[in-house]
TrEMBL record:
Family: Belongs to the cytochrome P450 family.
This protein's name: Cytochrome P450
InterPro entries: Cyt_P450, Cyt_P450_sf, Cytochrome_P450_Monoox
Signal sequence, start to end: none
Record-linked Gene3D superfamilies: Cytochrome P450
Length: 214
């Protein structure tokens, strides 16, 4: 990508954006990856991804040997931090759901949620916790593992998809301009969060995101 005539790598920015989105979607909590310079959870996700890639090209390193290498120690350290964060969120979210009946929101919250299109929307973690309350299929450990998988796999594929979309738009200036004008027409330079209804109005953007810039 280019900004002010200079080329820069957009991938790290998109990754942080995807982590923020997936974290709120999967766990119902904010990590503010885009606004904070350092975030232990984000750094651990990055480190784990890099170590997995490093090891992928070294199949001759067995699990037994790997655990005694510097990268093996680092992998276990970051994996523990990710697991601890997830388990903490699971415990806090579980308590929150018990203390607050989501169907008995205040009128102000209901109005705000309706405006933003969030009414009765629950995170992936909330759905799992509610499911565990009605059956013994999932315990807290199972739920934490499901959320870890959703987070780790989800942010990477989302990042790749977003970067590819931007790449295609950048290589099709006419389509990029149409998308830009549609966004401007719908949002009208507003500074508040976009609503679901506004996003639904962006038909051209949605069509090109699904079919590709062709």
């Amino acid at each position: 990508m280019k900004a002010n005539g200079e080329t820069f790598d957009i991938y790290p920015y998109i990754t942080k954006c995807a982590l923020d989105i997936i974290c709120e979607t999967a766990m119902g909590t904010s990590i503010n990856a885009m606004s904070s310079n350092r975030n232990q959870y984000v750094e651990s996700i990055y480190a784990i991804s890099e170590i997995i890639t490093w090891r992928f090209f070294r199949p001759y390193i067995t699990d037994f040997i790997f655990q005694f290498t510097p990268k093996g120690y680092a992998f276990q350290k970051h994996l523990k931090q990710v697991h601890n964060f997830t388990r903490k969120v699971v415990a806090e979210r579980k308590k929150h759901l018990k203390d607050n009946n989501l169907n008995n929101e205040s009128k102000a919250n209901k109005a705000n949620n309706k405006l933003l299109g969030k009414k009765e929307r629950m995170s992936f973690l909330d759905l799992l916790l509610n499911s565990s309350e009605s059956s013994d299929v999932l315990n807290d450990q199972d739920i934490a593992e499901e959320v870890d998988t959703f987070m780790f796999e989800g942010h990477d594929t989302t990042t790749a998809g977003m970067c590819w979309t931007l790449f295609l738009l950048g290589n099709n200036a006419d389509i990029q301009e149409k998308v830009y004008q549609e966004v401007r027409n719908v949002l009208q330079n507003k500074s508040t969060p976009s609503t679901i209804s506004e996003l639904h109005e962006m038909k051209y953007l949605e069509g090109k995101s699904v079919s590709g810039s062709t």
